[in-house]
Xylanolytic transcriptional activator regulatory domain-containing protein (Knufia peltigerae), 518 residues
Amino acid sequence: MSLLLLQAVFFTGVTFVDLAEIHSAGFSSRRAARKTFYERARVLYDFDAECDRIPVIQAALLLSYWAEAPGDNKGGWHWTGICYTLALTLGLHRESDSTLPARHIHLRKRIWWSFYIRDRLIALGMCRPLRVKDDEFNTPMLTLNDFDLDDLVTDEFYDLAFTREHQKALAEMCIEMAHLSVLIGKVINLHFSLIPSTESAQHIKDHTGRTTTILLPNVRVDQLESVILLDRDLQTWNKTRPLSTIFQPTTLQNCTISTSILTVHQAFLQFSFFSTMSALYRPLINRRSTSTDKLPSKFLQISSKRIEESGIELAAANRELYNLDFAGFLHPTIATMELPVIITHIKRLQHRHHGTVLQALQSILYCLKVLQKMQDMYPGVDLVIAFALDVMNRSGIELQTDNEQGPVEVRYGDYSYSIASDNLDEPHDSGVENDSPGSVFLGMPATIEHDNVMSSSQERQQSSTLSDLPEPQWDSQSDVFLTDTMDFDPAFSLMYEFETLNYREISQRAIHRPPAET
């Protein structure tokens, strides 16, 4: 038994422990427990308490979920760097020797792909460069055999949701996350670079010595065909994945330990997919109007539709997760994924249609409610909330909070939306047409055909698939994420500007957190 790995497991596992057990162990809150176990594991690592590199890399992967403040020199980026170094020294990036025991080969593959997924998610959420290049490893993709499912099923665990069926569903979600991570890497490589473009060269530099964003937007008109191909790949992934991996909201009456575990993981896949789709198109819209090589207007329209669609889908997921009381168990990466969702719906407020405005306000409020739940466990969410509130304030949105419930109402001009007015039986009107039958969560956006790639000199004729997409519900397409009073140059998920803000000053404007859990 590795003491280092044990403490790292405690650090991540305490998120899901009953609060009464945390209090009985002497901790005042989940945050306090997580911090204590993190510090214990970090000390064990610093003093080389573990010599076996396999448990060290496993522990480092878990510790990469620690984030206390922007620029933390020993946050997730630090720990994934350790993972990468150890993975290379262990040869995890190469196909294992067939003479090794099967269980050992499976373990090595699981560790490598776990690191690969984490590497892509940190890049997606924090604008960090990819450590792993796709042409620098040949470790095969995960399969169900790599999870040794038959060895996990025993009768004594049957009542703890460890049936083979549920384990298989979790394994399938891990495999699909690995496939999606490959596409995430392609999106990042397409739109971002270590070398700034002319438009992003004037970004504020941080000379304090903190870790700052490294990747910068670098979008070119000649990349449009690649965008179309990636859109197609993402849609194919979404349409062909197993049913067990699709977010299918349940009800509190039907909720069991098994279904709650599966639903939370399905929701993370949902967030990852739509955040990636949004990230594929967001940089195209965010180009400065002074760019010499203008994007075709048809392509700007398509981009706006994709971004709005993603924001609507994720806002609907937020509402379901909050009403099921699952928000506090979500993956911490979702916190940064919420920022583009909030800003997309802020932009939708310009539509001024009564139904659209109320839906946008509802979406913003539930984003904040989900973040508030996550705030109880993850210190880094404090600044995510502060940044969201700062953007809302600049946009003229008022927020009413309650000492016990946190945010309860949002106002914009003559419009308002409150939790008290919410009708859970009312169908969710997304405002975006959906060609696929079934729930809004199962809807598949229309695929953009390859022939719709348009050059800067001549726009090609629009196909019928494009006309099926609804019109975006904001007035202009030149600044999807910017209101008239803002002067940000949005990066991948707005984390670039997020990290340059004054942490102490802006944190004072965060949502009033309710009293410690009791």
